[in-house]
Amino acid sequence: MKTLLFLLTSLLSVNVYAASGLIWLDPITHWLHHHMPYIDHHSAGAIVTFILVAIMLVITALIYRAKLSKVENKVFPDSGITFRNIVELYGSFIYSQCKAVLGEEDAPKYFKFIATIFLVIFISNVIGLIPGFLPPTEVVSTTLALGLLSFIYYNIKGCKELGVKNYLAHFAGPLWYMAILIFPIEILSNMIRPISLALRLRGNMMGDHMVLGTFLNLEILGFKVAYLGAALPFYFLGLLVCFIQAYVFTMLSMVYISLATAHHDHDEHHAH
């Protein structure tokens, strides 16, 4: 109990300094900003942290593959709580979401992309709760890149699944004489999607980080709130926000994939 209390106090103490500007990756960030002056310091920090997140995920994947290669019967899970079971539990959760939105037949096609995009966003969000790190998803350039990735992916899959002609035809609507009005509206609506994904994610993560930072620096009768443990509920709230924002982004991406790859019988509609 004493050890747990010591670690908790240390965490909160470091977070007080982190909220005041302590950033562990500042040396690398300054180096990047110095060699690429067209990138501002905040964006440089997001790039460095995002690269760190990517490295962490690659290492996790390699460890999982190494552990899986030693298993004789891969159908049966390990006993107890293990690294492999945690990874596969995550995979089962994401696959169930894919089946719910995309259907049993299409879920395997898009599972890898969905599982990756959720994990990247979630870890990028959560790393902002660690003392001395700023979440990459707090910077609009990062969230816009993620939004564009989703946008490009579902449009490519739509063209591949339906053919370019049929895919563009579904923007025109079922009635040919309304196409001149419906087509530009649908195209504009489609172009706004990556922007809405980016701004929603960035706004919520920036707000969450500001709330946490405010309470870490708050003083009551000369005592830091963080030392009193009053900021702990905001950590749990922040973790919930991190999950929800990654989940919302992923679910909307799946909905867009579903809409883009759905088969429409345009010839039959236009014939009427």
Keywords:
single chain; 272 residues; mainly alpha; 1% strand; disordered N terminus; disordered C terminus
Care to describe what's here?
- This protein is mainly α.
- The protein contains 11 helices and 2 strands.
- The protein has one domain (about 1-270).
- Strands 1-2 form a two-stranded antiparallel sheet.
- A hairpin with a 2-residue loop joins strand 1 (about 220) and strand 2 (about 225).
- The longest helix is centred in the last third of the chain and has 39 residues, at about 180-215.
- It starts with a helix and ends with a helix.
Brief rundown of the structure:
Helices cover 75% and strands 1% of the residues.
Task: Describe the secondary structure blueprint for this structure.
Elements (H helix, E strand, L loop, with lengths): L1 H18 L6 H10 L5 H29 L13 H20 L4 H20 L13 H23 L1 H6 L9 H39 L1 E2 L2 E2 H4 L3 H30 L4 H6 L1
Antiparallel strand pairs: 1-2
Helix pairs in contact: 1-8, 2-3, 3-5, 4-5, 4-10, 5-10, 6-8, 6-10, 8-10
Order of helices and strands: HHHHHHHHEEHHH
Helix content: over 70%
Low-confidence stretches: 2-22, 266-272
For the biggest sheet, the summary is: 2 strands, antiparallel
The shape is: globular
Mean pLDDT: 80
Beta content comes to: under 5%
Q: Widest sheet: strand order?
A: 1-2
Class by alpha and beta content: mainly alpha
Total count of domains = 1
Given the structure, what is the number of helices?
Answer: 11
Radius of gyration: 23 Å
Number of strands: 2
Distance between the ends: 74 Å
